[in-house]
Amino acid sequence: MKFPQVVICAADEWPAGQLRELAAEHRWLVKEVRSPAAARELLRDPRPTVLLVQIDPTEATEGLRLVAETHRSAPDVATVVLSDAKLPEEHRAAWTAGAFDLGARAVLFPPVARSVLEDLIGGLMAATVRRVIGEVPAKDDVIDLADGAYEHA
Q: How many structural domains compose the chain?
């Protein structure tokens, strides 16, 4: 049985801390890494996945490369970019457009409330699970891939 996973590539523990309770309620794995290379390794595991990449827009090369590579090599992985720096409004629009062009499904800037992050990741995970296994999650919102006959060699 392959449980869905949230892969978090971030410089600190804040994003994972915001999502642990939601992940536990839905039986998702939360895998924290500090480098894009480590995230790439986790993304090789074939299971429903949401990738959250925390990026400093002034030093974004490796993080944005991870977003682009994930979009190209694993299109079923929903990718969220989380900026860890405040930007002026005019820079946010351009930066967001660039992240969308590379394959991000959402881009968040500070301040980010826990409820916003939970709603976004929860919605993306539900859509990813439906796309990957072809069913709607169980009525009690617990995703049991064993019941959905999800098997991947």
A: 1
Give DSSP secondary structure letters for 39-102. Answer: HHHHHTS-S-EEEEEEE-GGG-HHHHHHHHHHHHH-TTSEEEEEESS---HHHHHHHHHHHHHH
Which two structure tokens, joined as six digits, stand for 44? 């090789």
> What CA–CA distance (Å, rounded) separates 43 from 103?
15
| Mean pLDDT rounded to a whole number for the chain | 88
pLDDT tens digits along 15-47: 999 999 999 999 999 999 999 999 999 999 889
Q: What is the CATH number of the domain that holds 124?
A: 3.40.50.2300
